[in-house]
Structures are given as structure tokens and as C-alpha cells.
Design brief:
Length: 280
């Protein structure tokens, strides 16, 4: 009996003994598709950007992931710390180093974390990396911000979305030789300030994409990233000028189509290229 009281008091004073058990684990699964078909590295896929393509990269960063309670409160999903998740930022990686994909064999298609106990009915998140974490060195930053392949420049930060497609027959250009890979690189542009000198970086076009799904059941549903919808209205067999594909250049003629389908311009709460779908 005399041992019970100190233990009880310790729990009260530290407020720690019961806390971990009260958090509710949540996983949010993402799948890459082309319409109704699964999309992956290593096999040609018809009907993306009007062509038969091989995927050569498919990765995106997300942060500020939240669930909405049944009574309408937005609650942060506290992400677990993993090689793909750190400090509230996660990398979704559909690239597995097979076929035309040549980066990292590991993939990550699931966000994992915890929320306070309760009933939840909605999901929201932001595509991109928040400042100032965006403007850090990829050689010294912790994972998942340490990938040179997802880095852009210190000023501009990370590629928020990196989708690369190799269309059969190559890519015609206004001048010069045909290209092989249509690049979709979304990131902040118009950035000023030198992070190497300790200056804050501000970008005239942050290009982060807020996403909101009012009805989402993490156990029964996936978030679909649909490449057929993303490139609807774009011909990935030709480039209109500027970077090969769209590297977020405000004047690149190949950007307005994918900007629209990403829900960036004009802004929409539910980007066309994302949807919720029942798990099979
Ligand atoms: Ca272009």
C-alpha cells in the first residue's frame, strides 16, 4: 500500500503515465492512378497527357495535415517520426527505382500519426514544404528534406511536386532536338533573400496548394493522385517553350494546363487531380 501513493502522485505531477494511450493512431493512404488504373514505374501507361508514357519520377511533399472533427474543429495529425516524415512534413514517394525511375527503391504512400480521441469526418493538408524549412540545405537538412533530387536551389527550396514522364516517341520542341522527359516541377518562384547569409526568403509565388476533403474515412478510403486528370489538356509529347515541360515558370506555355489541374490557378479547395476513393 505504501508504494501505491508515490506512484499515483508521480503520474499526476508528470501528467505522463496515461497520456500516450489516449492518442488515436491514424493512417492516410495515397495511391497513384491513371483514371481507374494503377500507375507505377516500370510499365508503359496509356492515356496520360495524350500519350503512352513511362513514369520516371512521382513524388510530392505535404504538411499541415489535419482531420476535421464531426463538430467542425480542425485538429492537427501529429506525424510519427520516420525517414519519410519529420517535424510535420512528409514526402509521398511513388518512385521505386524500377523501369525509367532511377532514384530510390524505397517508397512511401502512407501518412502515419496520431490525433486526440474523438470522431472525425474530414481531411485537409497542404502540398509543399513550409517556410523556413523549405529554404534549407538539402545536404544538411534531416530526412525527408535531404534529397538532392527534390532540391531546387537554396532560395527556391524544394520541388513540392515532381512528376516526370517519358512519352513514347519523345517530345518535340519549338527549336532544337526532341526531348525525352516531360518535367512537372512545382515549387516556389520569385524568391528573394539569401538563406546562406541567414536572410529570410520571401517568394512572390509560393505555389503551395491547400487541399480540403470535407468527407474522408481514413480506414475505408484512399486519396488518389490521378495522373490522367493532372495532364488532362496537356500534350506531353510536345513542349511549347521554356523548360522541357513545366518547371513552374510563370511564362512557360506548358504550365497553365497543369496549374489548373493541380488546383493552383485558379485556386480550388479540391484540386482536380486528387480525389477520395473507397479502398478495394
Ligand atoms: Ca515548357
Amino acid at each position: 500500500m505504501r508504494h501505491t501513493l508515490p506512484l499515483f502522485l508521480g503520474c499526476v505531477l508528470l501528467s505522463a503515465c496515461a497520456a500516450p494511450a489516449t492518442e488515436k493512431p491514424v493512417s492516410v493512404d495515397f495511391v497513384l492512378k491513371a483514371g481507374e488504373r494503377p500507375a507505377a514505374c516500370g510499365a508503359p501507361i496509356d492515356g496520360i497527357g495524350g500519350r503512352r508514357v513511362q513514369i520516371s519520377d512521382a513524388r510530392l511533399y505535404v504538411h499541415d495535415i489535419r482531420l476535421t472533427t464531426n463538430d467542425g474543429r480542425s485538429v492537427p495529425l501529429t506525424l510519427a517520426e520516420t525517414p519519410f516524415q519529420h517535424d510535420g512534413i512528409a514526402l509521398l514517394d511513388f518512385e521505386d527505382a524500377t523501369g525509367a525511375c532511377r532514384s530510390t527503391p524505397a517508397t512511401n504512400t502512407r501518412l502515419t500519426g496520431t490525433v486526440p480521441p474523438g470522431a472525425y469526418s474530414g481531411l485537409s493538408f497542404v502540398i509543399g514544404v513550409p517556410a523556413p524549412a523549405n529554404h534549407t540545405s538539402a545536404t544538411t537538412a534531416p530526412a525527408p528534406l535531404n534529397l538532392a533530387a527534390m532540391g531546387w536551389s537554396w532560395q527556391a527550396g524544394r520541388k513540392f511536386i515532381k512528376i516526370e514522364l517519358d512519352p513514347e516517341g519523345g517530345i518535340t520542341r519549338p527549336a532544337g532536338r526532341p526531348g525525352a522527359t516531360w518535367h512537372l516541377h512545382l515549387g516556389s518562384t520569385g524568391c528573394e533573400g539569401d538563406p546562406v547569409q541567414g536572410e529570410a526568403v520571401t517568394c512572390s509565388r509560393p505555389n503551395r496548394i491547400p487541399v480540403q476533403f470535407p468527407a474522408f474515412d481514413p480506414q475505408g478510403q484512399n486519396v488518389v493522385v490521378d495522373l490522367a486528370v493532372l495532364f488532362d489538356g496537356t500534350d506531353v509529347g510536345r513542349d511549347g517553350g521554356g523548360a522541357l515541360g513545366c518547371m513552374s515558370g510563370p511564362d512557360d506555355p506548358d504550365c497553365p494546363g497543369v496549374f489548373r489541374q493541380m488546383g493552383l490557378t485558379p485556386p480550388t479547395a479540391q484540386p482536380p487531380f486528387l480525389r477520395i476513393e473507397a479502398k478495394k
